## 1
Amino acid sequence: MKYALLIYSDPSVEATPEEQAQIMEDYYKFTASISERGINLGGEALDGVDTATTVRVRNNETLTTDGPFAETKEVLGGFYLIDVADLDEAIAVAAELPGSWHGSVEVRPLWDWENAQQAQ
Amino acid sequence: MTSRGRETIERVFRNEYGRVVASLIRQVGDFELAEDAVQDAVTSALTAWPETGVPRNPGAWLTTTARRKAIDRIRRQANYEKKLAQLEYQTRQEELADKGEDVDSQVRDDQLRLIFTCCHPALALEAQVALTLKTLGGLSTAEIAKGFLTNEATMAQRIVRAKRKIKNAGIPYRVPADDQLPDRIAAVLAVVYLIFNEGYFASSGDNIVRHELCTDAIRLGQAVSDLMPDEADALGLNALLRFNHARRDARTRDGRVVLLEDQDRSLWHRDEIDSASALLDRAIRLERPGPYQIQAAIAALHAAADNFADTDWQQILLLYDRLVEMSPGPVVALNRAVAVAMAQGPDKGLLELDHIAAELDGYAWFHSTRGELLRRLGRYEEATLSFRRAIDLTENTSAAELLENRITMVG
């Protein structure tokens, strides 16, 4: 099954350069490890939430606003896509993700198009 | 059909339901389809059995029929060929295997897998409880709703949502890996314990005890223990539930709760206490102590005392010391404070309560305990304040009445 691991963190927590280097190192190791196991479908880190723009189309009009709307403390900072057997494995992988040691990781199954069509 | 005949058939359904559903879920890999198919089989049984009589092995009859019904249902779906071929192959294998001896162990494995699925930490606790009662306990949605004082529609929705999550999020049907097993077993036992406690100290409503939930929990606890016979704390939990349940006739009088110290101990079910003791002995012999065994040992000491004053409070306090080490938390500390008060005096108990006052400020039992210790020390005005606070916090009318009585005593 395919899952998205959505990494949330609090951008107001600032890391020292040493801590930053350590975090990069941890992510590098994590990525290498899941690639080696053949479960890595890709992933990206996102630039800061202060660079974000939110788009809504209402009545054929495109509305743009600065930043995300939600007032939550933790914001989406990046994601991985993985392919594993079941939720237990996905949870185990999420626990290896450095993002879960500092912030939190949301584990979401990808929408299953094949099953959705069958159900119709 | 005679009403007795119908009762027999209903009892058979309740006993077999959990096992049949567990085995169907393994075979079709889908909660909803499995339950629908079992429901179809039950409908068939209601027509067939009054004519033919209840078959010698009703569980096998229901499983076989449900499997056929599942095949019928899959046939009606689009894109069914692959699924169907797989299931038909499996059916042939199963039917061959059914003739062998391994059926019981297969059934046990199916149920074991299913209970870990139902008690998966990715599901909300209320959903774990509801699913466990439904699939392993064989309770109807209406019965579960009644047990937890919600309406049937809310409960039905909770169960549907949980099943959808199991399917769509890929919660597996299997016994967890060894490194996860201790945590996951603890989660299963916690669900059983929660069901029992909801019956034992009904947190809201007019009755202080809801016996059906207690007996359901005992039945589930026994099933879990049968599935994992070497799990010491599963035995410990079983012993604990039985020790507590054995006091049921003494715990209420005219619909009012009777505290341990005022209970008529001749009403305790001695045979059940004996069976609880035997379970606890078996658990202890496995030499893997756990929190439920400790609590069961405390219950055993209460059961062994002829009256409240003769209780071995020193020993109970030692057990609480171990329990606090094993599963620290304010509620355990509250119970320990009571033991301290009994072993060393109410003033010492009161000091212990001070440590947890902030954490348990919203907890009715904390304030009623505090009130009781203050009462024993003759500090009646403070005691009244604590009892009042406890009354404000409890939603159970019977418990509130008991506290009102306490206030009258100190007033």
## 2
Amino acid sequence: MPVYSARVLVSLRPSVLDPAGEATRAAASRLGVDGISKLRIGKAVEVELDAPNAQAAREQLELLSDRLLANPVIENWTLELKDDASAGA
Amino acid sequence: MTLGVVVFPGSNCDRDVQWAAQGCLGIETRFLWHEERDLSGLDAVVIPGGFSYGDYLRCGAIARFAPLLQEVAAFAKKGGRVLGICNGFQVLTEMGLLPGALTRNEKLHFICEPTDLRVEPGSCSWLQGYNSGEVVNFPIAHGEGRYQADPELLQSLEDNGQVVLRYVRNPNGSVGDVAGLTNSQGNVLGLMPHPERACDSATGGVDGRRLLASLLG
């Protein structure tokens, strides 16, 4: 079965305060990096999945993202699925 | 009356709940390991505080899939009484038994201090020992207790009387000063403060006793 590689990016919804992002932004200005108008922290989750085809892989990854990796109440997610299955690589 | 106390890898208030219920109030308790499925003979279930499964991914996100919690969800849906304290409240929101989510405290600090709460018991079965508008003091101890709900959801919770516990002085940035919520049936309660740590006069007051004593009818 081909192996599919994917990356799921999870970010806080724009309406949800990101205190860790705000703290990091404050530190950036102490470092001397000024002019940052937005800094929000999320997660990147790298996944490798065995699936019969790309469509099946996508369905499984969407379920995973929506039901486990992200909490849709407070987070958005995007899925990057590499189309060409790198079988055995 | 037997109270089940859920134990995950990483729970750390399970024994506090047992002390409060059994030691202070004489309510029989039984620990429920997360891989169990047997809730027979239980009248109520507590999901205690701690760091279930290390709180990896998000607080409560992995706990939701524990075999035991599939049974707890069914128990709650049948009207069984379920109490989620701190991490237990986070778990209840991840399970969808209570709406909204709990996120990082506004000022990022882990806050550990006695906290005044205003109680509006409404139809919440756990809070019938308190008067409407009464102010009680329970300790809080959390880093991710900022309740988050969009304005429409918050309004519907207010309209339905589900915001049963509110911070008098909001410590963490929760919307609507929400410290605790009940479901529409009133059998499920989730709260960030720790009533089980307010059951013994030797260790910080007894305002929490009436919450667990509600089990005695």
